[in-house]
Structure formats: structure tokens, C-alpha cells
Amino acid sequence: MNIPKKADVIDVGCRDGFQLEKEFIPTEDKISIVKGLARLGFKKIEATSFVSPKAVPQMQDSKEVIEAVKGIDGVVFSALVPNLKGAERALSAGVGELNIVFSASETHNMKNLHMSVMDSLKNAEEIIALAGKISVNVTVATSFGCPFEGRVSESQVISLAEKVLSLGASGITFADTTGMANPIQVYRMMKAFVEKHLDLAVTLHFHNTRNMGLANIVAGLQAGVASFDASLGGLGGCPFAPGATGNVPTEDVVHMLHEMGVETGIDLGGLIDLGKYLEKLIGRSLPGQILKAGKSTDLYPCS
Amino acid sequence: MNIPKKADVIDVGCRDGFQLEKEFIPTEDKISIVKGLARLGFKKIEATSFVSPKAVPQMQDSKEVIEAVKGIDGVVFSALVPNLKGAERALSAGVGELNIVFSASETHNMKNLHMSVMDSLKNAEEIIALAGKISVNVTVATSFGCPFEGRVSESQVISLAEKVLSLGASGITFADTTGMANPIQVYRMMKAFVEKHLDLAVTLHFHNTRNMGLANIVAGLQAGVASFDASLGGLGGCPFAPGATGNVPTEDVVHMLHEMGVETGIDLGGLIDLGKYLEKLIGRSLPGQILKAGKSTDLYPCS
User: Fold this and answer.
1) Is B210 within 8 Å of A256 when comparing Cβ atoms?
2) What is the pTM of this model?
């Protein structure tokens, strides 16, 4: 099994996880998690989202979060931006990278962003022009399936990604927004794309909604992808399936990568402690399984 | 990604799951689950365990369970047997296959069966002789790691499996008893073993304790293994890690295999219904994620 020796894990829980929390998480608690992650060896952390505070009140403190962490050395703090206004706010707060998200599926894009995919592309073009030297990553949501339309044409996804690249995006994330991807599909799509774009920063964003998240990561590694989004504790969920889990848990991903001999530069012990702290902050247990079972190398006394 | 076009899934929940339930599951409920599974296209179901009723009161009705289902056509009903006495009881009840379980790790075998691995091998030899025409599968527990000793030597595991074969076992199951396996390890160990024993029935038994269960199944498929144990709803657990999940959920495994284009002959819709029925029987929700999220092909209405 031929896989990269090193991989990056990007924690996105402070955006993709917190945005689904009903109770407002105090700003200082959000900052404590972002700062906690920043100490553990992550190169990039998606720290917040500059969406409309009316639409997503949980993210109303995005400016404060970025301003509290942006000085920390060696870590890029990125933020999701839905439109030009969000991008202006994010840039003015001092983010290290913008992340634009839109869907490969027209129906999902319309439901989520109230615009066509074509309009989202125009939107991305304007944001990239505005960002100047600040890098812009584009996340193509529903890349492996749409909860409304079903399987999305692979050539449509790839062609959308290539259009995005031609606009000047510095990296592409293919997102399995509702956990529909399977390992064969991931391997096939990514193998072709990575071979064509050898020098590009390609990231995979999996949800563990149907228990295939870590299997999809291994398939991505086999296709040559070496960057993965994940969420501390598996914070997050699926708006379509109450009770279903969301993002792959960061500790579980880092644990698997280390067990497979793939270096991440991330302090797994510290990550598990931070996951437990997050569980206390939000007052409930999270789906991450390493939080419950410990590492494979944690042995039990014999007597 | 080169994988088999067909795979067998063996449900072991009525043994590996029920045995950990504290409340006694009424015999007729156990039988209803085994019969329910038997209607869904499984070729083999591990239906119960002929352990000492004193040691495991939950399994005191193993004879009744086997006698109630053994006439059903097209399905092999197997049972775990720990020793010669259990094998006699199982054969007399009319099981279709015996499954002997012992560990590759001395410490785990001593804790679990109170005997050395060498004595377990002698035990297996006697049971195989007693079974005559009834086939005997041997499960090598802790094949991918021991919770007391850590990583078990791969050559020790393989050499144990080969000793077992020389005694006349008809099949081998490599079990990741406490969820310590990782995909690279599974691929490496299984690739070498399967290539050497092309005609042998090799099964992999994974626990999802550390979220790697389905990734390990894909690694097993890539190594040429086409038979996997799983447990309805993910029933079961880990005696060492309270709150941690146990066996890979059967519906999640079958769903992933079908999504990957691997035929199982199993009715996934019926399996999901049976999993929900099991949740009602035991009065709590199970870890299986397809039970919560539905299939990838279940679409949501657009308006």
C-alpha cells in the first residue's frame, strides 16, 4: 500500500462544528480551543466563518476570534467566507487564508447559498481578486454526492475544480458534505485529479455520517492526497440526519495516521486532552472514539 | 483499487454482541434476531456460544437457539465453543459449524481462557477430531494487537494460523479483538497470508473501537480477503474501554460494500429494519450509523 510519509490535518471544528451549536459558545471559549489547537502542531486551522451574524449568530464573534490568535507563529488561521462582504471583514480582521465554499450540485448550492453555481464562481473570482496576496482556498461541497440530487457527475466536479484553479485559487478542498463518499469513488476521482495537478494543494474533507470517513481518508492517501480536514472530537453534525455524526474526529484521524506510520507533526496526547476539554465546554460527549478508547498503544495492566 | 467483486458478511452479533448484555435477552427475542438475519441473505450467522452457563448466563439458552433455527435452508449457523465440553453440546444441538476462539497473545489467552496458547492448540486439535464432518473455524484473537502486551509479532500470528490449519481447521478468522489494527498492518499481514493460502476461507473480524473498522475492511479487501465478521447495529463493546464501540456494524459494512460495487447478496433495507427492531428489543440506540443517517442513496425532498 503506497501512501505519503507525511500528511497535514487541518482542524475545522471551530467553524464546521461550532456553527451547528445551538447555545452560543462564549468567545473566550472559542479562542481557548483555537489557541489550544495552535499549540499542538497544526499548520492550518479553520478558526471561524465570516457569514452574516443574523444568519448564523454563533459566528458573530469571528473578528474577535481572528484578532485574538492571528499573531501566533507558524499557524495559518483561515476563515470561511460566503461572499465579498464576508471576505472584506475577514481580510480586515487579519485572516491568513480565505476559504470559499460552494457546491458542485446546483440544488445544494441554491439551498445553501441561494445562488447558482455560475454565480458562486463569479463570487469566487471577485473574492480572489480582492484577497491579493492572501491565499484563497476553494472548497467544492457535495463533491461526492448531494443529499438532494444524489451522485454528482465526477467530470462536473473536476471541471468545476479546474475552473476554480484558473481563477487563481491556491488550493482546492473536495468536501463530502453529508458523508456519501465511498473509498472506491474517492480513490478513482482523486487519483486522476492529483496526477494532473501534482503541485496543487489538494485537501479532502470527509464527514463520518455513514462510518466511511476514515476509510475514505486511506483511499485519499492511496491516491496521493496528503491533506485532510477534521474536527476536534468530531464536533459537528448533519442537518439532514438528526443524531448522525459529522466531520471525522481530528484525534481519530491523527491516531490512525500515526499508527500507519504517516507523520503529521501533531501532538496526539495534547489533542486528546483538548478534545476532553471541549467536551466539558459544551457539556456533552463527542463522537470521537479515541476520546473514549484511548490510543492503540495505551496498554492495560496485567493484574 | 483492486478488490474482490463479491464478499461475505457474517453476522456475529448474537454471540459477540449479546454476550456482553447485562440484562438477559429472552430466548424468543434472540431467535427472532437470528431468524430475521437468516431471511436477509447471510450465508453464515454466528448464532450463539456454548460457553459455561455459569460463566456467561446470557448464553445459557444456546441449545434452544440452535434448535430453533437449524432447519433453515441455505444458512450455516455457527457457534463459538471454548472447549471439548462446549463442542459436544454444540454438535448435539446441531450447529452447522464450530468456531474456536483463542488468542495469539499469551497474556490475553490466559486472562480470557485461563490456559496457555499451546494448551489452546491441543484443545483445538481435540475439538476438530470430535467434529468429524462438521467444519471448524478457528478465530485467532488479538491478531493485530493485545491490550496487555501491545503489538503481537506478525510472524507469531501467521505461524499460529498455520499450525491451526495443519490440525484440519476449515477456515481462519483473524480478529482485532480490541480495535488496535490499522489499515497498513492489515494489508501487509493479509496480503502475504492470502497469497500463500489461496484456497482457504480467511475472515477478518474488526472492532470499531478506534474508528478504523471500515478502513481495515477496505485494506483487507485490497489484500484479497472477501469475508468479514460484523454485528447487527454494532452491538457489542469493549470490556476495557467503557463507552467505546465494539464490532463493526453489519449495516454499515454491507452499505459500504454495496456503495463500492461489492456484492454481498444481503438485503440492506431489511437489515436496517432489523437493526431498528434490535434497538427496540434492547431499549437503547446502537452505534450503527446507517441506522441514523440512512443509505447514501436516500435522497431528501427539494422543497
Assistant:
1) yes
2) 0.97
